[in-house]
Design a protein that fits this description.
Helix content is 37%, strand content 17%.
Length: 427
């Protein structure tokens, strides 16, 4: 009935029929659900700087200050967040769901966003060539009939100097949802077609009866969730999933290469900060850290399984003029760079009872929280007149791969924007 036991592909027919199915699904269950808040930063280049830092581009010369951005499969609000993050960018948001785009358009009008263009398009039919500095496609291609073909369209749209932010389902995260989805489909006799309303009823009935102490009992948490949230995780009509290895293989077949993991809001919330395991055994640590990046991340994926981070990465074209640097090389450059403490002001929009967004008076300092305690003494002792390596030495932190990679992520990335480079490496 299904092509593979760990994926739901029975409805993955021709690309156009899969597009129609997904359009119907996301019109019935718009995703994501309406955000309660949106925010923007008063420094219009702050997010661009931190995106470059997340890529190890301490000179800020990979993603330009006024980039052309494509949010490929933008849903109801990802293009909104992107346009607010990068106010000097031209942002194109595309989606196959007219319903999702209408919600997105309504929000953009309420927030008076002027740098966003929305189009109803299938990624499988676009003809963009060498056009975008930065493409975001998260949680999208794995719902297509032929993900490599969809990714190939995205790769073609990327400039030779561009960056792709890509997320696909981590296979180890989706064992239970995939099993649940198949059970619903079989019970509902959706072998070649799908009835969303009937499927939703069957899913809710199972959730009401399932015992929390069974292996699939985690689905019981959806009893109080919205229909859209339940459907997104438990009723997807088409679901491919990947490991680090199979994602890297797919990327290579499309002329792309993985650069670095992209820390995201979901892994941040669950404190899954790193793709690097800290082994106590010196033998294991040496074997592990000597591996090429993708192999090391794949070992992490295999050993941590459902506890591994999301498969969310930055990629570039293999023919990019800049040579890919290893994570270890980027960490060395991080140590050789001078930093200053980063800060700006944040303004916030809040959804009122009438479902309209209003700007809260005043601003707050951003980032608003202190760095994680594991790196706070490095932050507190920072001296911008010296390379960061000297700060490590002053506070007694050994600058090995493990400590430096953690500090790089928790101090100078889009999710943890505490340090801004004041000069390039090599001082």
């Amino acid at each position: 009935m299904t092509a593979r036991d760990d994926e739901n592909l029975v409805l993955a027919g021709a690309p156009d029929s899969a597009d129609q199915l997904n359009a119907e699904f996301y019109t019935r269950f718009p995703y994501p659900w309406r955000a309660l808040t949106f925010y923007y930063l008063e420094n219009p280049y702050f997010e661009t700087t931190m995106l470059n830092h997340a890529l190890g581009a301490w000179q800020g010369d990979v993603v330009p200050r006024t980039p052309k951005i494509w949010v490929a499969g933008c849903g109801t609000n990802q293009a909104i967040f992107t346009a607010l993050r990068f106010p000097r960018a031209h942002v194109l948001g595309t989606d196959i769901s007219a319903g999702s785009l209408e919600i997105c358009s309504q929000t953009a009008r309420q927030l008076d966003i002027s740098n966003l263009e929305l189009k109803q398009q299938s990624i499988n039919e676009v003809t963009y060539q060498d056009e975008f500095d930065y493409i975001i496609s998260t949680g999208v291609i794995h719902h297509n009939a032929d993900p490599p073909a969809t990714l190939q369209r995205i790769a073609a749209a990327l400039k030779q100097s561009g960056i792709l932010e890509l997320m696909v389902y981590n296979r180890f995260h989706w064992t239970i949802p995939a099993a649940f989805q198949k059970a619903v489909r079989i019970l509902n006799r959706d072998e070649t077609t799908v009835d969303f309303e009937s499927g939703l009823s069957v899913a809710k009935a199972i959730i009401e009866e399932v015992s929390a102490d069974t292996s699939i009992g985690v689905v019981a948490r959806y009893r109080e969730f919205s229909d859209a949230m339940l459907a997104d995780e438990l009723l997807q009509p088409i679901l491919h999933s990947y490991t680090v290895e199979s994602l890297a293989d797919m990327a290579e077949s499309c002329g792309l290469e993985i650069l670095l993991p992209c820390l995201n809001q979901f892994d941040k919330a669950e404190q899954k900060w790193s793709w690097n395991i800290e082994f106590k055994s010196e033998m294991l640590r040496e074997l592990y850290e000597s591996l090429p990046d993708v192999c090391r991340w794949h070992v992490t994926n295999l050993l941590l399984r459902e506890a591994s981070p999301q498969l969310w990465f930055y990629l570039q074209r293999k023919d990019a003029k800049r040579k890919r640097r290893s994570e270890s090389e980027i960490c060395e450059e991080f140590l050789a760079t001078r930093f200053t403490k980063a800060a700006t002001a944040q303004r916030i929009y809040v959804q009122s009872d009438d479902r309209k967004y209003r700007l809260v008076p005043g601003s707050i300092v951003y980032p608003s929280t202190a760095p994680d305690k594991s790196v706070r003494k490095i932050f507190d002792a920072l001296d911008e007149t010296h390379p960061l390596r000297k700060t490590f030495e002053q506070v007694g932190v050994e600058p090995n791969f493990s400590t430096v990679s953690k500090a790089r992520m928790l101090l100078s990335s889009s999710m943890f924007p505490y340090l801004k480079a004041v000069t390039g490496p090599g001082l």
